[in-house]
Design goal:
Layout lengths: L1 E6 L8 H15 L3 E7 L10 E3 L5 E5 L2 E2 L5 E2 L13 E6 L3 H6 L7 E5 L8 E2 L2 E2 L5 H15 L5 E4 L2 H4 L11 E2 L6 H11 L7 E8 L8 H14 L4 E5 L5 H10 L6 E4 L4 H10 E6 L10 H8 L3 E5 L14 E4 L4 H13 L1 H17 L3 H24 L2
Parallel strand pairs: 1-2, 1-7, 2-4, 7-8, 8-11, 11-12, 13-14, 13-16, 14-15, 16-17, 17-18
Antiparallel strand pairs: 3-4, 5-6, 9-10
Length: 392
């Protein structure tokens, strides 16, 4: 099949959706399909090529665009004629500009991956967002989504726990297919780096992700004084960058825990593997519906590392609770601290959780298995479109 992915953002823009689109496209190509990604050329500062073929064989078309407000790309270059010759149009939302342009308007079947609800974070740059702004902004987006999604042949998201609590998906027919991971790449890096179970540091705690309001890193920092009171030799590594970094640095100073916290910026793939593998636990303290899955949980599990995650819809469906990790209430530093102390007190239990996480990665989250599930949806969408056209 010839598949076109319509993604509001894509490499070199970084994020969960961008990684998902690239990985799915790569596995589809390995299965013999042809994939083109049409996206917006953002951020403009990256000066990415308008046309490019990535090493995986993914053809990329980047449109001139600007970001209106926050995560609202606008381009005047997209034309439906660009879709001529493709068998499947696969749109990724939010944002909704591409879906608005194709839903119910093209000859090909439209398949949609609904990545998350549009949600306003509680703060930006450490400054609380006035609560009166949130409901009208979020509901206007929800209304648009509920209007557009039924026009697609098929809609899917990544976990049913997220879908059943979504103000959009609970009103729309949908499926759920999880995100996958190429754990063979991680295995190669581990071998190259000489990583073995002996390298696991029983006192190393890892946060890895964008330092944004919705990621909840500040709640992890607030948990650390209680952890350090019981385990003075515990170390927290924060790997990432973002608009909340200054606020998080202020918290570290406020709690006087600087010697126990190491900040790293962006890191190479091999360095990320090393950080995951050597940590006794990876903490994923996200706080709202902008986080619908958490690919980083899979990365930790692939490196045989236990996961401590917020018990919120979507992310709470990734692990095997109590066996591959621990779920805690969101925005609760005491609960985070108690769970961390439990794992630090029993490193062998944490390692056993890591091994169980690795088993899940090899079975439930194998990209090659998931790729076949997506292709089955494409085939179903083609048949559905064919039947609808025959009735005209």
């Amino acid at each position: 099949m010839k598949i076109v992915m319509l993604s509001p953002y894509f490499y070199p823009h970084t994020g969960g959706t961008e990684k998902y689109v690239r990985d799915l496209s790569a596995v589809l190509i390995k299965e013999g399909h042809e994939v083109t990604v049409i996206t917006n050329n953002l951020p403009r500062s990256k000066n990415a090529l308008a046309h490019e073929v990535l090493p995986e064989g993914i053809k990329v078309i980047r449109l001139d665009a600007v970001d209106m407000f926050y995560y609202l790309p606008v381009s005047l270059q997209f034309n439906r004629k660009m879709l001529d010759g493709f068998d499947i149009v696969h749109a990724h939302v939010p944002a909704f500009s591409f879906l608005r342009a194709v839903a119910g308007k093209v000859a090909q079947p439209v398949v949609v991956t609904y990545h998350c609800d549009v949600t306003v974070s509680e703060k930006y740059f450490g400054i609380p967002v006035p609560r009166w702004i949130v409901p009208p902004f979020e509901e206007s987006s929800n209304i648009m989504a509920r209007r557009l999604l039924p026009k697609a042949e098929l809609v899917y998201n990544t976990t049913e726990s997220y879908a059943e609590t979504s103000p959009v998906l609970k009103h729309v027919s949908h499926r759920s297919i999880p995100i996958g991971i190429f754990y063979d790449r991680i295995d190669e890096a581990q071998k190259k780096l000489g990583l073995t179970s002996a390298k696991k540091n029983p006192r190393q705690i890892l946060f890895l992700g964008r330092l944004a309001g919705n990621k909840g890193c500040d709640y992890l920092v607030k948990a650390m004084p209680k952890v350090l009171a019981k385990f003075p030799d515990a170390k927290l590594i924060i790997c990432g960058d973002g608009e909340e970094k200054a606020h998080i640095l202020d918290l570290v100073t406020q709690f006087d825990i600087g010697p126990a916290v190491t900040f790293l910026g962006t890191a190479t793939f091999e360095r990320l593997v090393e950080l995951y593998y050597e940590s006794i636990v990876y903490v994923f303290p996200s706080i709202n519906r902008l986080e619908a899955f958490g690919i980083v949980q899979l990365e930790a599990m692939a490196n045989s590392t236990a996961v401590l995650a917020s018990d919120i819809p979507g992310p709470n469906s990734v692990m095997d609770p109590g066996k591959s990790g621990i779920l805690v209430p969101k925005q609760n530093p005491d609960a985070i601290a108690d769970a961390l102390c439990q794992l630090l007190a029993d490193p062998e239990k944490a390692k056993a959780m890591g091994r169980r996480g690795r088993e899940l990665v090899e079975t439930k989250y194998n990209w090659y298995v998931i790729g076949k599930q997506v292709v089955a949806l494409y085939e179903e969408a083609l048949e559905k479109k064919k039947k609808s056209l025959s009735k005209l």
